[in-house]
């Protein structure tokens, strides 16, 4: 052994001590990891003070972006412990959201000989695009088309454009449904607002009827979402009391599936995953979708396809869902 060796045989190399700055970064990674995991897991339990609850609920999937940001701090800290901290929010996010982003194609039932395809879009009032949206959704082989935010004259233009293939329709205020199949027991729903932004009808397919709810929930903004919450709560109450075995609720709910106001309706109806997986964000179209405000929820029906697509001039993407008819 050389006389100039810095250590004796068998001695362990000294562990490099972190600087004060690196220890501080490690502490920040710890706090950030713990805080992010808690927000992901319990965002809907944060008091909705100054609208923070609404923001956190609807931004919940995006909280995962904190992990790569914290990773940069962990690398800068040169601490393996920092990297271990990151496992907590990463696994919390995966546990919370993986079930909802698995591709429907992996678990969907086989398509039967008799199916029904629903399409829906908030066409954005004032764009003059209701007819364009309706024709685009018709071209996608939709059997039932629901439109929200209809303005003056647009419902009649849609009816005229779809008259040949969709002879059955029912319109309530700014919400309308056009169908290739007869619509029965149609009625308006005010859902506690005092004005009507929802409807209920029965689609008579000849292979079993389907109760359809079409809704355009009131807008939701920080400190201004009481009307929206009331509509969703009352819709959940109506659906819970509905004796029909096969139900579809579709439209612009102005809430994401992680919104605490959505818990009531998601407890009585199921939302299918997207064909190709991920979240299926529908709003805004540009520069890119950031939230899924438009939903289709079902009970008693096998969903074989569920996707979104552009149509017309709206700032919302349309949604399109195909189900096997009852008994198929």
Automatic annotation (TrEMBL):
<dbReference type="GO" id="GO:0004519">
    <property type="term" value="F:endonuclease activity"/>
</dbReference>
<dbReference type="Pfam" id="PF03372">
    <property type="entry name" value="Exo_endo_phos"/>
</dbReference>
<keyword id="KW-0472">Membrane</keyword>
<keyword id="KW-0255">Endonuclease</keyword>
<feature type="transmembrane region" description="Helical">
    <location>
        <begin position="83"/>
        <end position="106"/>
    </location>
</feature>
<feature type="transmembrane region" description="Helical">
    <location>
        <begin position="24"/>
        <end position="43"/>
    </location>
</feature>
<feature type="transmembrane region" description="Helical">
    <location>
        <begin position="59"/>
        <end position="76"/>
    </location>
</feature>
<keyword id="KW-0540">Nuclease</keyword>
<keyword id="KW-1133">Transmembrane helix</keyword>
<feature type="domain" description="Endonuclease/exonuclease/phosphatase">
    <location>
        <begin position="137"/>
        <end position="316"/>
    </location>
</feature>
<dbReference type="InterPro" id="IPR005135">
    <property type="entry name" value="Endo/exonuclease/phosphatase"/>
</dbReference>
<dbReference type="InterPro" id="IPR036691">
    <property type="entry name" value="Endo/exonu/phosph_ase_sf"/>
</dbReference>
<protein>
    <submittedName>
        <fullName>Endonuclease/exonuclease/phosphatase family protein</fullName>
    </submittedName>
</protein>
<keyword id="KW-0378">Hydrolase</keyword>
<keyword id="KW-0812">Transmembrane</keyword>
